[in-house]
Amino acid sequence: MTNATRSFRVEKDVSTIIDEEAERMGISVNALVNIILKHYSEFSRFLSKIDLVILNRDILTKLLEFTDDQNLFKLGLELGETIPKDTILFWKKDLDRQNVFEYLEKIICRYGLLGTYDEINQQGEKIIVIRHRLGKKGSIFFHGYIKSTFNIVGLDSNIEVTESSIKAKIII
Description:
Muramoyl-pentapeptide Carboxypeptidase, domain 2; 6 helices; 2 domains
């Protein structure tokens, strides 16, 4: 990756906040600004175009609690057929396996803040684990959603759920 040199003027109060935040995080101002710009370039600029909203986690968790397990799974299956497909096509312009994994990692977890994404490739399988704080009902919804998302690109998966995580094994 090559770097480009840029020079910016920023408002004094913004500069102060960036300085303080970089210090708190133990990173340089340059590193923090790169994180902010990457977040914008990979995610924020698409928010209104892919119809995303920011919602308090407690509101989402309470809404999930009011739906029975079977309907949550069914809802996940239904939404997982359309939302990821439309989002990935708009965002990446190509619907393939790698973009599905990137969608889960970046849109759902890193920037969507719905969970923490981890993956490993071992013995011909990709194992993905998403850890979240939406409770068992959230896991049930994610199970259906991720199953349908993988089906979009013909990925066969074995999905396990716990109270706070989803583990998917995919043969690659």
